Amino acid sequence: MDGVIYREYQPNDFDMLSEIIKITWNHGKYYSYGVSCRVADAYLRFCLSEQTFAQVAEVNEKTVGIIIGNNFLKRHFHFNYFLYAMYDIICLSMSKEGRNAWRFFRNIDKIYKELLSLQIKKYDGELSFFVVHPLYRNFGIGNELYNRFYNYAKINKINNFYVFTDTSCNYNFYEKRNMKKCGEKVKEVTNVNCHEKISFFMYENISNQI
To answer: What's the pLDDT band for 191 if we cut at 50, 70, 90?
Structure first.
């Protein structure tokens, strides 16, 4: 796709990225507008609070995707993002809908932590968040963002990293990049009045692939 600019994340990208999260996760199906905004904002801020790598794709001055990664060898904590995320959680806790919404995401986080706890090896990094606006997929933007993180990992000697995903996402993307599925859990999750059985995965990129 012509005219795509890849660059480091800037604070003025935040609102557009939060909107992409709401669209991608179909928040409007489950939550009121206010709650969906708080959930998306909190999640993105938590991801940004630990990042050592964050690059976005921009088309016509519009942010259309982001990839976020953590280098565990050079950990860095962005306290301001964490504080704002905690404020979002406090606001969500003031309503039953908000509490239920955040509880749903906390339960998914617990599943991912279970998958990680079952691994024997120690990882050097994590691909913690990766999303492209639905209207801008299949143009190679996701490939380029992933390649940029991959090159970052190679330059910084991140010999192995992992990513969490599930059947609601395009997890085949990682298999096509020779990442190995190293964990899987099938869970029935409840979101508002919706009950779904979802497979949650952990993929890894090991040292001889970098």
So the answer is: low
pTM of the model: 0.92
Total domains in the fold of the chain: 1
Q: What is the pLDDT of residues 103-121, one digit of tens each?
A: 988 999 999 999 999 999 8
What percent of the chain is helix, strand and coil (3-state, nearest 5)?
A: 45, 30, 25
Q: What CATH number does the domain containing 122 carry?
A: 3.40.630.30
Residues 156, 161, 166, 172: is their CA dihedral positive or negative? positive
Structure tokens at 1: 């796709």
Cα 98 to Cα 3, 26, 101, 154, 194, distances in angstroms: 39, 16, 5, 40, 16
CA-to-CA distance for 146 and 68, rounded, in angstroms? 10
